[in-house]
From TrEMBL:
SUPFAM superfamilies: P-loop containing nucleoside triphosphate hydrolases
Broad class of where this protein is predominantly found: membrane
Protein name: TraD/TraG TraM recognition site domain-containing protein
One Pfam family hit: TraG-D_C
Keyword list, A-Z: Cell membrane, Membrane, Transmembrane, Transmembrane helix
Amino acid sequence: MPQPSSAKSTDATDIVFKVLLGALAVGVPLSNLAWLGGQITAWATDSGPGAPYQPVQALLHPEQLWPDLGETSLLFGTRVLPGAVLLALAITAAMLYKRHKGTSGGRKKRIDGMAKHTDIEPLMAKAITAKARSLRPSLKDAKHIDARDTGVLLGNLQGTKYEVRMGYEDVAVAIMAPRSGKTTSLAIPSILNAPGPVLLTSNKAAGDAYTATIDARAAVGQTWSMDPQQIAHAQREMWWNPLATATTLDGAGRLAGHFLAASVDASQQGDFWSKAGSNILSQLFLAAALDERPITDVMQWLAFPADRTPLDILRDHQFTAVASQLKGTVEGPPETRDGIYETARQYAAALLNSEIAAWVTPQKDVEEFRPESFVTSTDTLYLLSKDGGGGASALIAACADSVMRAATAQAERAGGRLDPPMLAILDEAANVCKISDLPDLYSHLGSRGIIPITILQSYRQGQKVWSDAGMDAMWSASTIKVIGSGIDDPDFADKLSRLIGDHDVETTSTSHSESGKSTSVSMRQERILAADAIRALPKGTALAFATGMRAAMLDLRPWYLEPGADELSAASARASAGITERAIAKAAPRKSDFGTAA
């Protein structure tokens, strides 16, 4: 259908108006530049007095303003020079505009509806410093407080220089895919700047948090490395007694629970064989702890159920009810007893490996690691285990658990909180640090000055270890949640999108009628960040959810872009080279492997 004549005339008017604006945008500066260029040329060539200010005349008829200037001088002064200057200004403006769009229109641009710095004021420098003074008596009267003493740096509010920190009463969960910055931007900077003791669990060593931080942490305290599966090929310079806290039924049960969690997913831990095997382990751990025996004696008792030694020990220490339970299992139907004992043997099978067992049994001339001393120091504990390490990862989880429990006890003795606080970076927690009741611990660790940061690759990974209810509980109890790039779970991405919320978007529509063109503006609700946008988060950015605040987009701060990175890189390279040298030395054949030549 042909447009009405009135609509056509309106469109023509719009075009004429735009052309007029364009002509003015070019003509006004060009005519002024022409007059200025003519004046400069006349002055430079000493060609008579200057002309009056008539920019239009200078552009159209310059010879009338400067009659004494030659044709070449007029051409250069009022045409070439103004044109070149205007072109240079246009190019400069275009470059500045492009740069501005590049920094505010790409990943650096604050997304409309996401938190501004005023929305997350409690995580900004002033508030976080004031909070640190109130939480830490040692800082109460300090004139100046270093940023590292106030909280853990999460990153910068996107597109700004505002640093976002979690305080030393927060507990955090970070869900970040591999190579999304979880180690370089979260774990390593947190460890390097921690004011108190640090606990790190990991399944990697070379080129990871272990090598990047071990030299720096050695400068502020002792470094302890528990490496039963020789990930870093660390020399055994410590041993830890897992039975030290197993002298009560609860303590022995917790230790057995770590072996259960390391071997069986949360969905299978409630069946008969799993519970029965865990119960036998807890009873035998209790007997070994009461008699101050090494944990390896438990494997001997598991191999020979008829051995009455654990029964006698339990009775001698007035644990008669536990002894009766153990006796009932031993004297029960053989097929049931054998199944229970075999289940327990499988859970604790790692203790049969003498290399692994050496880390948890008394060693001559090797220092004992004592959690109660560690939590009052500025030492660092590295707990290393392979994915699916079974009983070996159970020892890692048990050691981490014992440290956090010792920290809780020390905090209670110190008036309620640790000062300085203890940082617990539980990297790859779903693989190497399966503490069954970690979601429950989250409810009170922060208030004790114990700051856990549990790092997972996905939400489902946590559900597999702690069940749906357990992971939901940990998520809810976390006062800080960090979400990095690589979220491929559509349900979780949609959940995050709903948590971020909606905002009003202005929509403009244009219609044509006989009376002309009309424009209307309306508002509609739209997701601030859709699920597909969350999935496509670029590397180097992360979402941060803090209790009671709007979701914020962060620019991560990898350690290798910070001051002192060259020195840290060199130290990390040396530590990685040391791992390689130790690995090669262990793999090299020894003379005794070949015998004596004939």
